[in-house]
Amino acid sequence: MIQLRSVRAALAGVFAGGLLLTGCGADQAGPSGGDSNYVQGTGEITTVPVADRQEAPDLAGDTVDGDQLALSDYRGQVVVLNIWGSWCPPCIAEADNFVRVAEDTADDGVQFIGINTRDRTRENAQAFEREHGVPYPSLYDPDGRLLLEFPRGSLNPQAIPSTLVIDREGRIAARALKALTEEELRAALDPVMAEEG
């Protein structure tokens, strides 16, 4: 009888340990980031062939600075859309890369737009933009509602940071579900810039 209890206790311990390890796996697709309930991206960068591209939604709303912005105002330009939060360590890590590429491509018909998500106050987002010298506008989306407007499968609204490259016709040409290095950002952007528009 004692031996049976010991075996049951050992099996229960192994089962509980397995559950713990499953929750701590290196997959990185689970929640992280405290109370923000975001999911770190999968690390994938995907380009979409021209024939398979989906239309990006016509996002519109207030910017972090309180101005109005509509994605449709930039039709005819290549748009880099970066989803970020001031509370997100990978967003902080990639911010300077985005600033450099935005400044380098400003005269080439490329418009960078941010979507600030889950910052409960504009002040946090504004402080982030000041600290990193962000030269482009960001829509203010504290509840993540704008992210839900994207076509199914084009963006995981919980994966932050995420980046979409939108072609001159307003279609999603590339996406990254991870923080990007400057080289990765340029590799996703350059082919879309080179397309005839």
From TrEMBL:
<keyword id="KW-1015">Disulfide bond</keyword>
<dbReference type="GO" id="GO:0017004">
    <property type="term" value="P:cytochrome complex assembly"/>
</dbReference>
<keyword id="KW-0812">Transmembrane</keyword>
<dbReference type="InterPro" id="IPR000866">
    <property type="entry name" value="AhpC/TSA"/>
</dbReference>
<dbReference type="Pfam" id="PF00578">
    <property type="entry name" value="AhpC-TSA"/>
</dbReference>
<keyword id="KW-0676">Redox-active center</keyword>
<dbReference type="InterPro" id="IPR036249">
    <property type="entry name" value="Thioredoxin-like_sf"/>
</dbReference>
<dbReference type="GO" id="GO:0016209">
    <property type="term" value="F:antioxidant activity"/>
</dbReference>
<dbReference type="GO" id="GO:0016491">
    <property type="term" value="F:oxidoreductase activity"/>
</dbReference>
<feature type="signal peptide">
    <location>
        <begin position="1"/>
        <end position="29"/>
    </location>
</feature>
<dbReference type="InterPro" id="IPR013766">
    <property type="entry name" value="Thioredoxin_domain"/>
</dbReference>
<dbReference type="InterPro" id="IPR050553">
    <property type="entry name" value="Thioredoxin_ResA/DsbE_sf"/>
</dbReference>
<feature type="domain" description="Thioredoxin">
    <location>
        <begin position="50"/>
        <end position="194"/>
    </location>
</feature>
<keyword id="KW-0735">Signal-anchor</keyword>
<dbReference type="GO" id="GO:0030313">
    <property type="term" value="C:cell envelope"/>
</dbReference>
<protein>
    <submittedName>
        <fullName>TlpA family protein disulfide reductase</fullName>
    </submittedName>
</protein>
<keyword id="KW-0732">Signal</keyword>
<keyword id="KW-0201">Cytochrome c-type biogenesis</keyword>
